[in-house]
Prior knowledge:
This protein has 18 helices and four strands. It has helices at 2-8, 17-31, 33-42, 55-77, 89-100, 103-122, 125-132, 135-156, 176-193, 199-218, 251-288, 300-317, 328-333, 340-359, 364-379, 390-406, 409-426, 435-453, and strands spanning 83-85, 160-163, 167-170, 322-324. It is mainly α. The chain has a two-stranded antiparallel sheet. The mean pLDDT is 89. A hairpin with a 3-residue loop joins β2 and β3 (167-170).
Amino acid sequence: MNRLDRTFSLTERGTTLRRELLAGVTTFLTMAYIIVVNPQFLNAFGAAPEIGWPVSAGVTATCLASGLMSILMGALANYPIALASGMGLNAIALSLAYTLGGFGAAMGVFVIEGLVITILVLTRVREKVMHAIPMPLKHAIAVGIGLFLTVMGLQNGGIIIDDPDTLVSLGNLWSFPVLTVVLGLFVTGVLMARRVKGGILIGILFTTVLAAVANYIAGPGELGFPPGTALLPDRVLAAPDFSTFAAVEFQPIFSTLGILGGVLTIFSVMLTDFFDTMGSIVAIGEKAGFMKPDGSISRLRRILFVDSLAAAFGGLAGASSVTTYIESASGVASGGRSGLTPITVGVLFLAAVFFHPVVAVIPPQATAPALIIVGFLMASLITKIDFNEWDTALPAFLTIIVMPLAYSITDGIGVGFMTFTFLKMFQGRFKEVHPLMYVVTAGFIVYFVAPLLI
């Protein structure tokens, strides 16, 4: 125990081994949906057998890549951030697979962008960009991600649903899956209010058991839960399938898209990966108390290095880009403060290679309350933004509101950054903008224009 304490600075960070393990389990359960969802993207949802990969292979790739990279983050950076195949990035992978004729070439894009970002880390460019961001925008990123998580939880739980006329509307509050979410949110909220250790984890387990028992009594499919979830698993073990490993192709990227199209595609994916990660690190670092008054974060270079390697490794494994997960905030909210949290997550992911039928029964309704609670905790940072300063308050507000509405961390950051830079420029206050912010703003202009050029 003393060695663990010294290695991971447990006492120094005000945490314990038990708390770290609980935080790791909480984080894993909050993000375990990726084990079920990501293989469906890689399978093209069964709609295109000519390009889709077997679901079993997608499960193996997702679990191994996520597990190994989470362990590396914990061991090298000693930071409570877990990694997995990125939602949004896997949708990009599916789109690229259709365009390029297969997932092999789509994975090639992720390998290249991951290697480019690794170079930016090694040359400290990525780190300098993070330091160049004004503090109000850093706070806004954390708040925006909090709202993003809340919207995600409300949608996953069916409380908010799509509406063609009003964009979104209230779901059927009297359906059993939604009632399960409401009850789970109430239980989790009470536990958090009473400061019960592991309250978020208990809430996830409570909601999962409630859904499974009710679904078992009523019969599969009768209560409206997604197929395959909220059920007792029909088996416990499953054999791994390594067929996606090293199936990467590079030649179709440029032969199909051309040189300019290939470069712009890689750049767009890289920018998405770059700023999604940056937003997550800022938000989690702020909430965990790791951000210093000047906005810097210790061990930042190591965190960014692992994340950049994960993007390339995810492509090599056939799991799409593996990236920092904002759901790690659930573990931080449960007290996780060291690298033991993602190491725990990583071990559970590796175990899920064989036990994924058990993990697959966790319904989205079980993790929805956790996402809503964590979103609330992160949104509280809005009190640190001075809304009397127009040239920082307006960009901060746009960052906050665009993230959940566009369902994109990168788009929210891009709109906020461009607004900040342009407001300063048109006031003649050029020196108040860090030179790298001009570079990043130019990059975002290319990012938003790129779809017209590809």
